Amino acid sequence: MLVISGLSDDIVEILTLDGDLEITTHGDEIDCFGQDVDMLVGMPLSGVAIRWRYKGTWSVEIERPSAGVDFPWVVKVEANGSCNITVVIECPDDTPVSHDVVKRTA
């Protein structure tokens, strides 16, 4: 299972929770201030595309990476009472995660 959180300090954090609830961080936290973070969980034709945006509060877009392709896993979006958003993807622990930081122009 993959847990991706937008934290209150403009940071996106990626964690893997295995069956024993052991948590592994995927590299460094990603700074979102003034920019968007585009993620691909899985492969380009069979994964989940996610865009994170922080402008004082979080927004997240979740899409199939290709038209006509079903989501391969259950995807849940959770919001707590503050400005944090968490995306939970019920994918295998070894699912690849890639990201690009996109500078916002407007």
List keywords for this structure.
106 residues, six-stranded antiparallel sheet, four-stranded antiparallel sheet, globular
Structure description:
The structure is a single chain. This protein has 106 residues and is an all-beta fold. The protein is built from no helices and ten strands. It is 0% helix and 52% strand. Strands 1, 2, 3, 4, 8 and 9 form a six-stranded antiparallel β-sheet that branches. Strands 7-6-5-10 form a four-stranded antiparallel β-sheet, with no helix packed on it. Strand 5 and strand 6 form a beta hairpin.
In short:
The chain is mostly beta strands.
Mean pLDDT equals: 79
Q: Which stretches are poorly predicted, pLDDT < 50 over at least 5 residues?
A: 20-25
Query: What's the structural domain tally?
Result: 1
Largest pleated sheet: 6 strands, antiparallel
Q: What is the share of helical residues?
A: under 10%
Q: Which percent range describes the beta-strand content?
A: over 45%
The whole-angstrom Rg is 13 Å
* First and last CA, distance: 34 Å
Structural class: mainly beta
For the secondary structure, the number of strands is 10
